[in-house]
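We now fix the convention by which a protein and its fold are recorded. The integers have meaning only within a learned vocabulary of local backbone shapes. The record below shows the convention in full.
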Amino acid sequence: MRHKVLILLFSVFSLTLFFSCADNSPEVASVSVMTIVDFKNEESLPSLRLSLFTETSSDVQRAKKIRAVSNETGLSWMCSDLVKFNEGSKKSWAGYANIVPAEGSLIPEGNWSVYYTDCAEESWEGTFTVKYNADYLQKHAGDFPDCINSSNTEKIAVYSAEGKLIYFGEKKKTWTDISKVKNDIKAAVKYRICYFISTENVMILMPEQGEKENTLPE
């Protein structure tokens, strides 16, 4: 699970893209889904989105579109502007990291179906489940992590001046502010604290901070 989390996070922050088509039937090994609660600042309520990626055993460049359907409500999302990337030389992923609900509504919880279609219009069908605590959407960034009512893991995403993700992983105890982070990662300019709830596959992203912002939590 931790391995898939890192793949999905990398898709949110930094990707290498590929585009083309070939002639083989689609082969999908797995589906990975993450619910993302995203705080842009300390004052506003967070936004909500899904990140949905399929691990393809066939050529990832052939992926054309992915449709996600909530079995509980019948609502569906068509994703045709797919992000495609390789994880080393062994795995390939195609998907979309910004499936958002209509304004004023939530992403439905429960069972979903996913339909993967390649450039030859050949399809593959799978399922996944969405679960999250909707109460988090009425919280502010300062309420976290105290308001999380289940086991979670704290991570940190560090960015360069160009906005490139240069580190994602454990936050050292010595990293109490951005200047301390820069002692170990010279190119660090901004960072985000992330809380991952593995039981629900939920990632909570704290507001971006930098050299003149608040210190990191102990």
In short: Residues 49 and 100 are 5 Å apart (CA to CA). The first strand starts at residue 28 and ends at 38. Residues 1-6, 14-20 have pLDDT under 50 and may be disordered.
